[in-house]
Amino acid sequence: MGCFALTEPDAGSDAAGIRLRARRDGGDWVLRGEKTFITFGDEADYAIVIAVTGSSAREATAFLVDRAMGWTSRPIDTMGSWHTPASLTFDDVRVPAGNVLGAVGEGFALAMRWILRGRYVIPSQAVGTAERCLEMAIAHANTRVTFGRPIGERQAIQWMIADSEVELEAARWLALRCAWAVDQGHPARHPAAVAKLYGAGMVNRVVDRTLQIFGGMGYTRELPIEGWYRAVRVLRVLEGTDEMQRMIISRDLLRGYERIGGHLA
Ligand SMILES: Cc1cc2nc3c(=O)[nH]c(=O)nc-3n(C[C@H](O)[C@H](O)[C@H](O)COP(=O)(O)OP(=O)(O)OC[C@H]3O[C@@H](n4cnc5c(N)ncnc54)[C@H](O)[C@@H]3O)c2cc1C
Q: Is 263 contained in some domain?
């Protein structure tokens, strides 16, 4: 298994703040520094590591680094079970020049492209999880009886189900709109930001409503809902936080990109 190592303690949202450096030494590169919050970093056998090789982080290079080359990892405990992260340490790890991915100095641009791909996926992950939650909520609302009637006959429950359906359907279309733009060969940066921002928020709200409809049972570990409740929270943080998506979306609009239709790149 592999992982993609970009983030560092002082970088995060400000991806251009990466500091892990690689220096040339004969036929090798020598990597020194740390990466944090790297998904599956503790399980990975190899990592794609972005390291600064020029005068600024934008002059970075991507390396394929085998664990056997000497990097170490420490798992980071989190509230959810998805995207389990680790901290990776590179203490003068020697990497053959043949392990450079792409061209020297092009690693930052490559990393931005890979992160964008992650943003294509999260809206679909959100839609799939929300679909399952809504199915469970509907089944429970139809079978759980209180005060002599199924709770699904109460307006309070009906409105939660209706709100979840509307938001789920909206997120599905945004995910499909993004997938369509990718299929057309567009980078789809703008539709990916829109779909990612909305999808991540949507699934958090749908899981929360589902837990509410299940009452106490929703809070127990006998059902998967509480685990999803904790897990989906990270979707508003990784691959660019909500705030970063809003920044991308508003910048595109303020710079005069076409607002409706067209192919917002
Ligand atoms: C479980 C998990 C797995 C991860 N996996 C990976 C991985 O595999 N590879 C990888 O490279 N990274 C990974 N990350 C890192 C993730 O991409 C970062 O956590 C994320 O980009 C946010 O960076 P940060 O944590 O440093 O928060 P910060 O950048 O410190 O942000 C803190 C808060 O400030 C806000 N903020 C920051 N700057 C601004 C601004 N200019 N304007 C307004 N608000 C701002 C943010 O939106 C956020 O709310 C993972 C994170 C987690 C939690």
A: no
